Amino acid sequence: MPGVAVISRKLHRGSISEWSGIYSITSTLGDTIFFRALGFKRYHTIIPLTYEERHCNVDIVLEVDTIQIKEITILPWKSYNEFIKEMTKERPVDPIIENMNDNIASIYVALANPTGIRISPEAGFRYAMEQNFSAMSTRNQYPINNLLNPFAWAKFISGIKNGLFKNQKFNKPVNAKVRKKIKKSEKK
Question: pLDDT value at position 78?
Fold first, then answer.
């Protein structure tokens, strides 16, 4: 039988039988060997002190340890009819559950759109097409490194020339006010 735990009590070692039921364990004379398997009674055997050979082959037959019981149904209601009546009664929808259902619906919508791009009427056609192309061209690949892209650098430099990255509100730094320390002798 596969999966039987074989344990040596004296040496605190263990083994598990393979699919054909064969097992091997190192032990000493007078040691107790335990056999355990799910659904079977535990069994143990003692290696005799008078055993003189180097190897010991023992075939073990485990007894089934299961008890068949009848099926039972436990309900918090007195009868099955009360259970049906309680389960089919209409209840107002809890707002938390309604929000959860809305969140699950939004997840389904996001999964249906594999590119992850949200296209709305407010979005410009060109921007949406660029995002869609970018998502399609890098699918199942590493993202594009724009540091090595000459077109991205050209776009960045033209943005600097056009004042796109210019700080709109620029305040000149104000010198900090320095307070002079007054010596104790000058206070008096």
Answer: 86
Can you name the residues that pair with 115 across neighbouring β-strands?
Answer: none
Q: Which two structure tokens, joined as six digits, stand for 123?
A: 């979005």
Please identify which residue in the block is written with the tokens 């309604």.
98
Q: What is the DSSP letter of 138?
A: T
Whole-structure pTM over 0.70, yes or no?
no
Give the chain's mean pLDDT.
79
List strand residue ranges (DSSP E) for the chain, in order.
Answer: 5-8, 13-16, 32-36, 43-46
Distances (CA, A) of 60 to 4, 6, 10, 17: 11, 11, 20, 11
Domains with residue ranges and CATH for the chain: 1-67 (2.60.40.2070), 69-138 (no CATH)
- Tell the burial category of 33 from Cβ atoms under 10 Å away from its Cβ (0-12, 13-18, 19+): buried
How high is the pLDDT of residue 136?
Answer: 78
Residues 43-57 have a mean pLDDT of: 84
